[in-house]
Model the fold of this input.
Amino acid sequence: MPVKQQHESHPGSGTPPESGAAPAVAPRRSDATRGAILTAARERFAADGYERATIRAIAKDARIDPSMVMRYYGSKEGLFAAVLDVDLRLPDPSALDPADVGHVLVGHFLDLWEENEVLTAMLRVGVTNQAGAERMQSIFRDQLAPVARRACPDPEQAPARAALCASQLLGLALARYILRLAPAVALHREEIVAWLGPTVQRYLTAPHP
Done:
């Protein structure tokens, strides 16, 4: 009976090795392209606003053909929605000490604003564009309200209390990162937490006036 010849894989032979080791997965080019598009779109939407920003300008900034933007996001509206798809990564309310939730939230938002240019771009667009404003409303409503509901004495008041917290957090961001008011920019993180923490805490946990 003829014996079947066993084929060994050699470098460059094109035959995959028969070992159980999985080959290393290189980053896909599509991921890099999407990242470049989103980075360019954030900067362009922030600088020009929604109406004046164009797919052509965003593609030029990303150094790709405009057809690639349309391929991945379909339209300017689709790209805009992707830019504003933000997870605030708020801490689990059940893990927070109710007496310290205000300071924790202010510190968390400061860290977000400092490390994430998406939020600054979103705020710039939100104050000039209705779609951007609606997106910001949904983000803060859906993500901040559960924290307020857990912390406040009456869950029915959670939407109003979350809105009051947002007024402080967004007001700080507007003054510090958009308008860049010198005294607001000069404040250290610990100072801001010390100033705003008790205010946010009161909004969340104080009895209804």
